[in-house]
Amino acid sequence: MAKKSIGERLGPVLFVASLGVITLVYGTVATTRGWFPAPQIQLAQRTLMDISHNWKNDLALEPTRHLVKPGGGDVATDRGLEGKPSGTTKEGYVLVAGLNEDQDEAFHSVRLYDGEGNEVHRWPVHYDLLDDEHKPQNVMLHGMEVFEDGSLVLTFDAGNAIARIDACGKPMWTRKGSFHHSISRDGEGQLVTLLEEGIAWLDEDTGEITHQLDIVEDLAEYPGGDQRATFDIRTRTPDNTEQEVRYLMDPFHPNDAEPLRAEMADAFPMFDAGDVLISLRELNLVAVIDPQSGRMKWHRHGPWFKQHDPDFEPDGTISVFDNATGSGATRILSIRPGEDNVETLFSGSEEQPFYSWRRGKHQLLDDGNILLTEAEGGRVMEVDSNGELVWQRHMAWDAESNLIITEARFVPGDFFTNGVPSCSSN
Hints:
globular, mainly beta, four-stranded antiparallel β-sheet, Neuraminidase, transmembrane, five-stranded antiparallel β-sheet, transferase activity
């Protein structure tokens, strides 16, 4: 057998080495630009991590996807209501949406507490009656809107339904679709909520979709062309400039859409009744848009970070739940559209811990207090205008965990037409 030359012996080695270099370079570029197979590998890694942490949840053994470490710093093992409602909340009811500790009754529930802090009603939420594609333990009850007759409209993150249920939890209507996060009534018989990457209007009596806006098609690509830069922050410019701009994964993450009701419109001269206040978490953007055209009438990037739940307020300001993700201290901020100044109404601190790195709600009350939903701490609390704690309620699951709370809502004592909701009245 003839002896191989050095070139012949090195050939395979150089070939393999070249393949290694090419693979390394391609892998780096693919990861940066999201080319195959980087997204598939990342998805597989996330899926394996999720399964390893939540297999008990998926087998309906323990709701691990819905449990959090108790908020508020050092807390007692025996958790529940601390302090007493006063002022505004003393004169009405507080609804709390989240997981049901009695899993045999229903996986999710909405509780109603009176002015003494006593539970006076509970809506069982049977997700399996609304959608046969997803298991109840794998969806998150999130959006909640309440009606005078004691019924509720609900949305579910990672689910495929929006539904109106009566006081006993029986579905009144159901609409399939990826509805998520918030729900608001416009005072004119319409519900405003989020559907996939857009905003949807539904008839509150039937659930029929009456109007939709898509964030890319109607806001980012608004015909005037002057809004594109605001929404293209999370995009990549293609090598071929004739190609469409490609958006990154979850480029906007819309998490709130609230209509300006007619009775509050005079406080906002820049806007009209029906205009919609939106929150896009990934852009740190809060904006008010025309519901028909998608034109932005006002917008602001920050100073909030990964914010939720901007609200129109009667004094002409907009309040914002600033998650301030990564800071350890969530804030409630206030801004008047058209002005630069941003006021801090409340902030978590060492003396008064308050932090929800994601999710969360707030409600400014008539007496100047603030009702707070610390979603990732499983805690509802009320603070006064000086930031002092009035009362708090831990939604305890066991000695170490609280249940995630997605929303707490105050309604006045005369809100319900027939008094406290009950199944006997249905």
